Amino acid sequence: MMTKEPIIEMAHVKKYFDIRDSKGKKGTLKAVDDISITIHKGETFGIVGESGCGKSTLGKTLLNLGAITDGTILIDGQNVTAFKTQKEKIAFCSKVQLVFQDPSACLNPRNKIKDILAEPFKIHHKKEMSKKAMEAEIDRLLTMVGLAPEYKQRYPHEMSGGQKQRIGIARALALNPDVIICDEPVSALDVSIQAQVINLLVDLQEKMNLTYLFISHDLGVVYHLCDRIAVMYLGNIVELADKEALYHDTLHPYTKALISAAPTIAEEKTERIVLTGDVPSPANPPKGCKFHTRCPFAMEICQRKVPELMEVSDNHLVACHLCNKEE
Asked: Which of 198, 233, 285, 294 is at 20 to 30 A from 119, Cα to Cα?
């Protein structure tokens, strides 16, 4: 059940990477460029955007995988950017877990399922658990994700893609986390299996009061699963709103183009908005609004001034000069 109590607070978070071009010239890739969001306990917060927009990098910053360039990240009131010891980092990992995109790539093919699910307990200093207690815990995890306990004797290659993703979810649940980051968790699965995994995630959230950060490029999946949605473009959030407002009262031209391109079975067909040109390089983005080179409504101000992410209606934020009534 979602509350108004914040569990994730990101303030002016930046994640830059030093790069070199083909000629050896140094540059900076701004994967995440000054993002501030708050996610509430029990909420499913979605992030959508094209490949390379920075959504997966944003998710990894919450896992403290590498130092951020600037900003602060609080999870349940704890500053994850201030950890100094390995012990602190390990303790933090029990609160935030990740479900990967490709279940086949994230499970060690040499290990049986029981060894894969036992690994979190061993890493987090629970070696004092008896073998019997460990087996019982593994059986409990398998049952939670809809698999029979007998599956613990199998190897990953003996399971289907959907079953392997269930194992990935079970491993993420092993330490009773508060937050689970789902990085494209169903994109590698067949459509029929996607529905099963999504329904499983919904059931688990209700039972365990989990908070999800759901990263995807599939607007249909995000609409079905998420409470609020942020749209990213070249490292920035361009629109953030409740899912109904985002889909039915869309404000940003980029969001409108994304939604118009999504397949639908509705009788009323929306006009397809085709964007011209390619996505600019995040290592050399345009000045002003990063979207102006592809925007059909671009104005002169868009070429020189970066639009601020502003609240234009109740809990509906957009970064677009078209929506700024003061300009």
From this structure: 198
Given a contact cutoff of 8 angstroms between Cβ atoms, the answer to whether 63 and 96 are in contact is: yes
Q: Residue 87: what residue type?
A: K
Residue 235: its pLDDT value, please? 94
The alpha helices in the chain, defined as continuous H runs, are 55-62, 86-93, 113-123, 131-144, 161-173, 191-208, 219-225, 243-248, 253-261
Tokens 């980051």 found at? 181
Token duo for residue 292: 């102006």
Q: How confident is the model at residue 125 (pLDDT cuts 50, 70, 90)?
A: low
What value, to the nearest 5°, has the Cα angle with vertex 29 and ends 228 and 73?
Answer: 45
Lowest mean pLDDT among 100-114, 205-219, 275-289: 275-289
C-beta atoms surrounding 183 within 10 Å: 20
pLDDT at 266: 54
Spatial distance between the Cα atoms of 233 and 231, rounded to a whole number of angstroms = 7
Q: Which helix (H) or strand (E) holds 311?
A: strand 310-313
For range 138-146, the mean pLDDT: 96
* Domain spans in the chain, listed from the N-terminal domain onward: 6-95+177-323
Q: Using CB atoms within 10 A of its CB, is residue 15 exposed (0-12), middle (13-18) or buried (19+)?
A: buried
CA-based torsion, 106, 73, 318, 225: positive or negative: positive
Q: Specify the pLDDT at position 39.
A: 96
CA distances 92 to 74, 83, 116, 120, 183, Å, are 11, 9, 20, 13, 19
pLDDT of residue 283: 86
May I ask the CATH class of domain 6-95+177-323? alpha beta
pTM exceeds 0.90 for this model: yes
Q: Cβ(1)–Cβ(202) under 8 Å?
A: no
